[in-house]
Amino acid sequence: MSKVPREWIGLTYFRPRRILDGLRRIEQSGHLNGLPYKVASLRTHKLKLYLEGRQAALFCHGMSARIGREVSFALFESADFDIVARYEDGGATRFVPVQLKELPPVEVNSRAELQHILDKLDAKLTDSKDLVVAIHINRDIKDLRPAELRIPRNLGQIWLYGGRDRAQHAWYLIGDLLKDPNLVTDFHYPSPVLYSASWRQELGGRLTGPTSLFLGPLSMYR
């Protein structure tokens, strides 16, 4: 953005690796065992903040793998976006408004479709060239074909990200759909060893280019 709102500069920004590591520790502690699905999956009204924080952290962690620099984020509710992402670029600090969307698990909404989400964005956000939309593909889709989707052209960027395995250790980031819907970055949930890879892939699967290789407050993970 050419002009950054002053209030964005003073926001509290979180490091995605720390957020994700903290949430994974809670998940593996056993404290969530036996809880109702909506509670364990952060899908109650009171836990919405943590669900959005996890989605934001996953997207920013994937973007960090893509650009090779840490992308942090601040939660910021507005009419058009949910978080502000921040990263360093050539000595300058960049700020980007991001709207978070989700293709939910079948257990939550079996009728939801990715194309419907994109169509709603096209109808609602008629002139949002500075806005980035990040859509969490929170279900197993074996035939995901980004290049065949109808992509809204009134946005700044559109990204897809989701887990590749049930344990959610391996993840993918696709996009920007407006520039290259076949560009994929693989990244791993935070661990002592960092790993990422990017490539372009045709619809049939053939590679077309080289591969490059207690819920406390969010403030506890800064």
Provide an overview of this structure.
The structure is a single chain. This protein is α+β, with helices and mostly antiparallel strands and about 220 residues long. Helix content is about 25%, strand content about 25%. The protein has 5 helices and 8 strands, in the order ααααβββαβββββ. The chain has an 8-stranded mixed β-sheet with strand order 1-2-3-4-5-6-7-8. It is globular, with a radius of gyration of 17 Å. Residues about 190-200, about 200-205 and about 210-215 have low confidence and may be disordered.
What percent of residues adopt helix (DSSP H or I)? 10-25%
Report the principal-axis shape: globular
Taking Cα atoms only, what radius of gyration do you get, to the nearest Å?
A: 17 Å
Biggest sheet, spatial arrangement of strands: 1-2-3-4-5-6-7-8
Alpha-carbon distance between the two ends:
25 Å
Query: Regions with pLDDT < 50 over 5+ consecutive residues?
Result: 192-199, 201-205, 210-215
Number-wise, the strands total 8
**Oligomerization state:** single chain
Largest sheet: 8 strands, mixed
Helix tally equals 5
The residue-averaged pLDDT reads 85
- What is the string of SSEs from the N terminus onward? HHHHEEEHEEEEE
- Structural class from helices and strands? alpha+beta
Q: Which range does the strand content fall in?
A: 25-35%
